[in-house]
Every structure is written in structure tokens, then in C-alpha cells.
Amino acid sequence: SLTLGIVGLPNVGKSTLFNALTRNDVLAANYPFATIEPNVGVVPLPDERLAKLAEVFSSEKLVPAVVSFVDIAGIVKGASEGAGLGNKFLANIREANAICQVIRVFDDPDVVHVDGRVDPSSDIETINTELILADLQTLEKAIPRIEREARTQKDRRPMLEAAQQAKALLDAGRTMFQARSEVDGELLRELNLLTTKPFLYVFNADEAVLTDEARLKELRELVAPADAVFLDAKVEAELLELDEESARELLESIGQHEPGLYSLARAGFHTLGLQTYLTAGPKESRAWTIPQGATAPQAAGVIHTDFERGFIKAEVVSFADLTEAGSMAAARSAGKVRMEGKDYVMADGDVVEFRFNV
Ligand code: GDP
To answer: Which keywords appear in this protein's UniProt record, sorted alphabetically (predicted)?
Structure first.
């Protein structure tokens, strides 16, 4: 499954956040056979639709989609030179599908900031610079080889051109993600450049920041079009120790109406380019994870590979139509249930029953 790698400067709250991420029981409850690595935190994707579906179908249980975060050993300036943990750090990032950078915006004289002051844009630049330098090394090694290949193999020429373009952009201090409309990243896929990965930014904030709309807007704009999530990592960790009522009070005291882990899960899911569709029955109401743009047979394949191979058609109703009708039968007689074929592109929140040959 796809993962987000958590990175950030030392002392920004990564471990605090990661501990909160790992202390939930979603896996134990719903995925008894999943092996969890110690450096992986799996969070449920909050989805209010599941509870409503479970009502309509009298489902015994709810199974949400999940998002996986991998804790990546701390980045330090000089990581790209292979200093200390540098090499391992870069290898771990290469395996992640997206990068989740934690940035400190909380004030606390007791917690030392590595660069001496809270400065989000400088933190972002520090991480970007290390990743850019690592990508430049990759390109400097690859370009002579691609050049040789391009002399005899015409089909390597577009790749050579893209590699040279990428090098120029990185040299100018831009990430491949920032320049994604200018270079065809597909041509460079085999190089697995780090800065191609989509970014998500988590601002570890305190109440003063969380309740300051102007400041939040400024931070959102700093990282746009990437997603920004605002939370207080220390509070997130405390929430898990509290009953529902006290948790709500604690959240309200810092001006929040839901745990930050919820918005983090949603943003992580979005950054990975994923969406969900739903199935429902007496046994369970469940959200399934598919890439945005997945077709009906691909969606069926997530349940079982046989479903993809033997796909005949999908019976689809939108969540809104289904809950408005009150039952599958009522939705059918209201003409809200569609038969979709193998070219159908799934929409988020489709409630589906697949027909297939085995
Ligand atoms: P890491 O080095 O990025 O993994 O950072 P840690 O999670 O170890 O946090 C460093 C220090 O900052 C610890 O003493 C944490 O208790 C503290 N800390 C983490 N998050 C917050 C926060 O949101 N507010 C405050 N005041 N302190 C925090």
C-alpha cells in the first residue's frame, strides 16, 4: 500500500506526532493479519458515511480505509552528502510515495530549535535543499549514461532531454514537484527522483497559532498548492488518553472541533492521490481504497483479483441517493441504481455491488 514518509528538522515534534499516529487500534480491530512494522503508523480515514450505511444495512461492523505514515530517521543538514544517517534517510524517502514534512510553529523556550528560531519557510527550504542536492547527484550520475545510450538508441533522447531540463530546474533551486508542469516526470520515472514526490505539510502549532486565522492563511499560502494540516502534536498525544467528553473539551480549549489526526489522515489520503468507494451489507460497511481515476474493474480488483478478472458489471448508487432512498430496494425503484460497465471511472463515495464470473 502507499505510504507517506514523515520528515522534518530535529525537535519539531515528529516523534510526538508519530507516537500519536501509532496509538490507535484500527489495525488490531479490522486487519488482524496485517503485519505492522514498528516505524509505520496506520490511521483510519474518518468517514461519517460508514455509520450511515451501517444503519441502512444493519451492518455488524464498520471498516474504514486507512492511511500509512512511515517514520523516517531525522534529516540533518548534509544528509545528501551521506553524513551520519543521511544515506539511510534518503533510501527510506525513496520508498515512500509522498513526503509529509512536520514543521514547528509552536513557541516553547524549553524546546531548542536547531536553527535558533521558529521559521517555517527556512525549515521547508532546508529539507528541499537536501532533497534537491540528492536528486542532482542522481542526475549527474545518470546523465552521462543516458547520453551514451541516446547516441545509439533514438528512444532514449526524450529522456536525455528531460534529464537535462530537470537538472537545470534543480540547479535553480526548484523541486521536480514544483516544476511538474515543465518537465515530463514520466520520462524520468526510472530515476525515482525524491523531489518528484508530492508533499504534505503538517504545522505543529500551539493554541495561539491555531486560533489565528491570518497566520493560518499565511502558512497555507506558503505551501500551496500542497495540502497544509494544522495540529498540536502534544495535544494529539494527550487526546488518546482521554474519554470522549474530556477529549472534546481539550480540543475546544485550543479552538478545534476534531482531532488533528483526522485532517492529517484526509490530507494524507488526498496527497497520495487516493479515493474511496463503499460496499455495504449485514456483515460490514466498508470503505475501499483506490487511486483517483480507477475504473470499475480495477476497483473490484481491490477486493479480490478474481473480481477484476471476472468483472461483468457494477451496480452503482451514489451515497447521497442511497441514503435519501433509505434502502437499496427503494433506490432501485427510484431509478437511482446504475449498471456500469468495464470503462466506468469510479466516483468518490460510490456504493457498489460487483457482478462477476468466477
Ligand atoms: P522530533 O525531534 O521532531 O521527533 O521532536 P519530538 O517529538 O521529540 O519533540 C521535541 C520536543 O518538543 C519534546 O520535548 C516534545 O515534548 C516537544 N513538543 C512536541 N510537540 C510539541 C507541541 O506541539 N508543543 C510543545 N510546546 N512542545 C512540543
So the answer is: ATP-binding, Magnesium, Metal-binding, Nucleotide-binding
